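Minutes, project check-in
Item: structure for the 291-residue chain
Input as provided by the requester:
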Amino acid sequence: MSWPIRLTALAESMRDAIGTSPAGHLDTRAVRAINGARGTEMTAIVANSVLPALRRPITLQTSDGLTLVGELAKPLDRPPLATIVCVHPLPTAAGMMDSHVLRKMAWRLPALSHTAILRFNTRGTSSAAGTSEGTFDHGEAEGLDLAAALEFVRDADLPEPWVLGWSFGTDVILKHALTARTDQGIRGAILLSPPLRFSSVTDLDNWAASQLPLFALVPELDDYLQPPEAVERFSRVPQATVIGVPGAKHLWVGEKAVSAVLDLIVGAITPELSPLPREWHGPMERWNDLA
């Protein structure tokens, strides 16, 4: 597989890889018209833009007795078309549920792609939302944390979830998502900056056997795994789609990188809604970490 894939062709390439999405019957123009129903002035979406959503703190209970803190963000005025469960980067390197790409997913995607976003702190991890019980376990017991999140999704009657990891979170997904899934199942996985550090060849082979969609979004300038090597290593998974993102780095710093990766995520799940609009009609807040 060659890279980079042009972003303008992204939605079509992902539609071919995963087939028609659950929202395939929707007219994109109608969906975006609803986005603009609350106002007439267009406002640019910037790094700290927070769009309307139903957001609430949640707690997750793991099978080994821990309480984890998290947040669920849902569309304000409609049932979600999709659900994404997010697993954050390495907590020993400041990864948490508020790591910026995950936080911006929760700020934007409920409004722009009508997606429910569940993010949480894995065991022993702290953020502004609080500290989850337990201690870091190098990607092992974190599988129980992911299982607790998937159980929450099932019990909340949310749509069958996609699982999304960033960096360390990708290893948790590769190692545990297949065994952590409930009877609801999972739609597939999206991996941001996968280092393939804690996961193994066996984990990749298990994903191959599952036949579930697997998308690896790999920054061109990643510190750990760059697109050419990622194509080679994910070749064990026939249904994997590896997408190299020109100019991006492991941490997806900058609005250009964030917008690109959010387009890619939405392109995997609801292709007809990608690329996302860069402006919003209606109420918008601006987040201030100093407030």
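Outcome recorded: Residues 1-39 have pLDDT under 50 and may be disordered.
No further action items on this chain.
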